[in-house]
Amino acid sequence: MSRGSDVDGMKRSVEEMAARFTEQAADYDEEKGAEYRACAALVIEYADPDRDDVVLDLGTGTGAIALALAPDAERVIGRDISEGMLDRARRKAADAGIENVEFGYGEFRDPDVPTGRAVDVVTSNFALHHLDDDEKRAAIRVMAGTGARRIVLGDVMFFEGPDPDEPFYNPAVDDPSTVGTLVEAFTDVGFAVVVAERVHDQVGVLVAERIGSGDEVPGAE
Ligand SMILES: C[S@@+](CC[C@H](N)C(=O)[O-])C[C@H]1O[C@@H](n2cnc3c(N)ncnc32)[C@H](O)[C@@H]1O
User: Fold this and answer.
1) Phi, psi (deg, nearest 5) at residue 124
2) Which atom, in ligand 1's list, is nearest to the CA of 65?
3) What's the whole-number average pLDDT of the chain?
4) DSSP conformational letter for 156
5) What CA–CA distance (Å, rounded) separates 172 from 42?
6) 2-40 pLDDT, tens per residue?
7) Residue 71 · residue 98 · CB < 8 Å
8) Ligand 1 site: residues with CB under 6 angstroms?
9) pTM above 0.85, yes or no
10) Which member of 47, 93, 107, 213 has the lowest number of beta carbons within 10 Å of its beta carbon?
11) Rounded to the nearest whole angstrom, what is the distance from the C-alpha of residue 50 to the centroid of ligand 1?
12) Is the domain covering 14-108+116-210 a CATH 3.40.50.300 domain?
């Protein structure tokens, strides 16, 4: 099935992806690789929210990024498609006594940010590579449309060509982009990529800052 080719196809695909992560949710936090940990640490460092900032973390999973940023922000909104992952994130927040984070259903294409809630910083770690190039461009447009001044993306991304002998992704279900494609997508919506950290040939962190006032997203309706 091609992903994103039609609304029904995309919907089924999102549901399948959600079910796959819900199955993994109980063990997800175990045995994370060095590259994942390095990437997550950089996303947290570069997100750098101010005390009065609202952070939107997309593909939040079990809340690794959202929960780490909550003590430094006014509020964190974590969005994901997998109820199993979201349940774990909520439990972790409760166990840690973190009250300024809210986890709920939201997709990259429609993160369901509460009406009237301004977003200052968008983060996403190891999640966007589940989308194809066109879907990623659309997701980056949605991120820009929140009005955020900064977007921090950690993910599987190709600095060199894909390496089938050492894949950081499952070609059957994942679809990482080149760094060039991602940089172009940010540029197209009025952001400048000010940092590109290469964690590995296939893993990196991009920090994109809005150019201009923040009121306009080129091409947005
Ligand atoms: C590998 S996990 C990463 C979780 C977390 N960001 C972290 O750093 O540990 C990827 C997450 O992306 C979510 N995801 C996949 N496709 C998505 C979509 N279209 N919209 C929102 N979340 C999605 C999955 O449900 C999963 O929880």
Assistant:
1) -160, 130
2) 8
3) 91
4) E
5) 27
6) 344 444 445 568 999 999 999 999 999 998 999 999 999
7) yes
8) 14, 17-18, 21, 40, 58-61, 64-65, 80-82, 85, 107-108, 125-127, 130
9) yes
10) 213
11) 25
12) no
